[in-house]
Amino acid sequence: MTNYLLTGGGTAGHVNPLLTVAHYLRKRSALDQVLALGTKEGLESRLVPEAGIELLIIGKLPFPRRPGLWAVVFPFKFAAAVSKVRKYIRAHSINVVVGFGGYVSAPAYLAAKREKVPIVIHEANALPGFANKVGNRFASAAGKTFRSANMANTEFVGMPLRESIVALAARKDVAGARQHFGLRPDQLTLLVTGGSLGARSINQTVESCRAILAAAGIQVLHIVGGASELEEVSEPQYRRVRYVDQMELAIAASDFAVSRAGAATVSEFSAIGLPALYIPYPVGNGEQKFNLLDVLAAGGAVTISDSEFTPDYVRSTLIPMLSDSKRLAELSERAKQAGVLDGTERFIALIDEVLSRR
Prior knowledge:
Strand order of the largest sheet: 3-2-1-4-5-6-7
Shape: globular
CATH architecture of the largest domain: 3-Layer(aba) Sandwich
Low-confidence stretches: none
Radius of gyration: 21 Å
Number of helices: 16
Number of domains: 2
């Protein structure tokens, strides 16, 4: 029997691979115990219990970015969080801590180190986050999603992908997926997505181009995100929704995508061979543009900056590209060369190898 503590929270980028690995571990052995560590505020507070996994709670601890009261109290709160995780590790006889980054992972890594419990890290982004960079200094092993990721002493494993995504590689019911969204079964379909919250600039450009896309014979599945002010729409060649909880159906329905470049999105599209125009998020530390290096090197995607995605670009470049079936097929095959379907198995093999040393 092995007791696993999986840690990672805040955003879907941390929580989804955690849940994928947790599901695989539980399916593999009913005797093993799989627990998760997270906060009350993060996405994990809902998704982890819904998956039937016990969630152990610590406080949310964003790292201070500037001088102030939080910078003064942070070391004390961080030390308290480490102490709490150490108690969890002892109480549940944890054999290995598996971290996916985010605020919650840093105290877990230090607690595991002090309890002499091995640590295995998964880094989703090509530009690693602070918690994983710290944890990687004393981790027993670390896996990365992208070959080009700038993280020392890591093994390339790919992204742990949900079973429903992996299943698309074997069987893709295009007509059924399009019917699910109320789209025509035999028409070229463009998927547009800016992530869970959406991307306002992408949404605005696509909204202004609805007529010219329809005139070109292109139907659109437009996922505008939870933060968008745009209402949902269902028309013969255009379907606008806020959120899709079965992303595998959106991928199956589509011939091409316009998208932000989050690690999970790039990994899923590449593994299935969905060609895409990626528009990296222009704010923050710029990790999204680095997430594209592998698929761009393989010739399986196109990218432009956020400011370049305009109605003129749609008319002059995007529509002609979508009308070139030969190019779409080539992009699809090259995307698959960069993609990885067995990232879950690869990463769990890394965990197993660490446990075998003890």
